Amino acid sequence: MSSTTAPTADVPVPMKEAPKTPWVFYGILFGILGAVSIIVWGPIGVSGTYPRVIGAFFRAFDPAYAEANPYLVKVGSLFKPETFILVGLLIGGFIGARVNREKAPKCEMAHPGETSNAKRYRDAFIGGFLIVFGARIAGGCTSGHIISGITQLSVSGFIFAIGVFATGILSAKMLSSRRAAGA
Amino acid sequence: MMIAILSTLIGVAMGFFIQRVRASSPAMIAKNLRLENLTVIKFMALTMAVGMVLVYGLSLVVPQILHFDVKPTYVVGVLLGGLVFGVGFGIGGYCPGTCAVGIGEGRRDAIVAILGGIVGALVFTLVYTTLIDPIVKMMNLGKITLADVLHVNPFVMALIVGAIFVAVIKMLPDNVGKRQQ
């Protein structure tokens, strides 16, 4: 948009070409890691941590509500492997970028319509809301239902994956259409 | 304590792998969902193919060391949850784990995605009893696997599904449209 030579700070960076990645190598390693996790304690999962954070919050500020809400009782305390996995993911992302001297863009455009940082943050927030809400309805997310679920040949994993890719492909394609790009 | 350390290490390795295949990049996820680039989808499929053959292979030899935990198939809730998840995945380009990886990499929109997720979990908690619980109870088939449904030995089933995944991975190009090689 702007013709200045300096990169503007408040515009998300578009990704032109998808980079070539060593996905075969890491796919095999991740498969082994999933098996290791099942040996150590159980299948890898992530999304249950989000309501556990809410539970920890209520236990600190409104213990009576935390006791009364059946869902918070069901998900239990934050002292679970899943919480540590989430912490590990953060560290792993940091190490991955550091070791390979990569600088991830602070704000990266996912769709052509994200012409400002504010629009990108809007999409990230709505997306974040829906993935956790959807994962909690289903009882798992990409890791718990798809990766760990299908690894165990669980029927629920296949059903969840079908749902995710049906609307995932549809919404991503709709947002890249010319009309959406002008929005 | 031991579990805490091991699960953190597993998380670190998983985060590293996700970062290396660019699955923590929302642009990369959007390209995969638009079916322009398929490397993240192929990465996931290969992970599952390797994992299923490994765990069901091990279960033939040392079943006592495995902690299987199959999630219940409550058809309506799982499908509905997947459909809602997919919309969020398509809009934001993150999943509940990849946004943590993204924060580690220094992505600011990943922080916003996690905040959205926390608000999503809060709203979910508040509406659980009235809206979610009835859906979850509908058509619950219990903890079933494909091997149970088709009455096939789990290891044989893993070999069949794994082989299908690998065949599909081999058939599909990395980049759609401009075939290299």
- Average per-residue pLDDT of chain B, rounded, comes to 95
Order of helices and strands of chain A: HHHHHHHHH
Structural class of chain A: mainly alpha
The radius of gyration of chain B is 19 Å
What structural category do the secondary elements of chain B indicate? mainly alpha
Largest sheet of chain B: none
Q: What is the β-strand count of chain A?
A: 0
Distance N to C terminus of chain A: 15 Å
Proportion of beta-strand residues of chain A: under 5%
Describe this structure in words.
The complex is a heterodimer of chains A (about 180) and B (about 180). By secondary structure, chain A is mainly α. Chain A has a domain of about 60 residues. Chain A has nine helices and no strands. In chain A, helix 7 packs across helix 8. The longest helix of chain A has 22 residues. Chain A starts with about 20 loop residues before the first helix and ends with a helix. The relative contact order of chain A is 0.13. Chain B is mostly helical. Chain B is about 70% helix and about 0% strand. At the A-B interface, helix 1, helix 2, helix 4, helix 5 and helix 6 of A face helix 1, helix 2, helix 3, helix 4 and helix 5 of B.
Brief summary:
Chain A is 66% helix and 0% strand. Chain A contains nine helices and no strands. Classes of the chains: A mainly alpha (183), B mainly alpha (181).
Write a concise keyword list for the protein shown above.
heterodimer; A: 183 residues; mainly alpha; 9 helices; 66% helix; globular; disordered N terminus; B: 181 residues
Question: Topology, pairings included?
Answer:
The complex is a heterodimer of chains A (183) and B (181).
Chain A: H1 23-40, H2 49-61, H3 63-68, H4 70-75, H5 81-99, H6 117-138, H7 142-151, H8 155-175, H9 178-182
Helix pairs in contact in A: 7-8
Chain B: H1 2-20, H2 26-33, H3 39-61, H4 75-92, H5 98-105, H6 108-136, H7 146-150, H8 154-171
Helix pairs in contact in B: 1-5, 2-4, 3-8, 4-6, 5-6
